[in-house]
Amino acid sequence: MIYIAVSIIVAYLLGAIPTAYIFGRALKGIDIREHGSGNVGATNVARTVGKVPGIIVFIIDFSKGTIAVTLIPAVLRRFIPGLAESYGFVYILLGAAAISGHIWTCFLRFRGGKGVATTAGVMAGLSPWIFLSCLGIWIIVFAIWKYVSLASIIAATALPILALATGKKMSFIIFCAVLCLVGVYVHRANIKRLIQGTESKIIKAKKS
After folding, report:
1. Could you tell me if residue 205 is inside a domain?
2. Closest CA to 118 of 175, 42, 174, 172
3. Residue 198 pLDDT > 60
4. How far is CA 67 from CA 21, 70, 124, 140, in A?
5. How much of the chain, in percent, has pLDDT values that exceed 70?
6. Which residues form the domain of 68?
7. Triad 174, 143, 64: Cα angle to 5°
8. If both were cysteines, with which of 66, 154, 155, 168 could 172 make a disulfide (CB 3.0 to 4.6 Å apart)?
9. Residue 105 near residue 33, CB atoms below 8 Å
10. CA–CA distance, 153 with 187 (Å, rounded to integer)
11. CB atoms within 10 A of CB 208
12. Which residue from 40, 44, 46, 51 is spatially nearest to 16, judged by alpha carbons?
């Protein structure tokens, strides 16, 4: 069990790497938490630093989630043969740890991003079909209403529905339901602005 515990810690620390904060400091010399929406995520980087840096941050944060549920288990299987058969729940714990690390990063006093990119990466590693379905939903919602936050909220809401519809194990369905609740919770300020009609639409990077 010590190997599993260490792996979960590694997954958390991987997810906790504050990519958006690092890019803000490195490229603009700013604390991303004090600009734009204040969120430590790819969308805020795109809005305050630039679209290209925002895309790069998204890819890195996405990769953190995928690595947590693919590469880390691959290493873990060297120490625990039959990991998938006997300890299938570990994959969920590793994904949850990476997402938690991104949202509540220990490197920034537990104030991180909303976890959208990292959650997407975890889903891509655990269930590519659900990931692609949620991506399709995200694209459709964004194309119609032009709100990144609304697209992310609806995609998160679709997670447990898709998990249930595809006959996933109960543990995975519960995991998706928790991700849905967390996704809605971290977007609570966005939901308030959506209701008030003050939410920002298409990302526009500030000029230097």
Report:
1. no
2. 42
3. yes
4. 20, 5, 10, 27
5. 96
6. 2-196
7. 45
8. 168
9. no
10. 7
11. 6
12. 40
Residue 206 has pLDDT above 80, yes or no: no
User: 14: which 2 tokens?
Assistant: 């991987």
Q: Is position 141 within any domain? A: yes
The type of residue at 108 is L
In a domain, 115, yes or no: yes
* % helix, strand, coil for the chain, step of 5: 75, 0, 25
Which 8-state DSSP code applies to residue 202? Answer: S
Tokens of 59: 């890819």
**122 exposed, middle or buried (CB, 10 Å; 0-12, 13-18, 19+)?**
buried
- pLDDT tens string 97-108: 999 999 999 999
CB 9 within 8 A of CB 94: no
Residue 146: CB atoms within 10 Å: 14
Measured between alpha carbons, how far is residue 129 from residues 98, 156, 170, 192, 203 in Å?
A: 20, 15, 17, 31, 28
Identify whether 27 is part of a domain. Answer: yes
Handedness of CA 14, 204, 201, 31 (dihedral sign): positive
Q: pLDDT of 22-58, one tens digit each?
A: 999 999 999 999 998 899 999 999 999 999 999 999 9
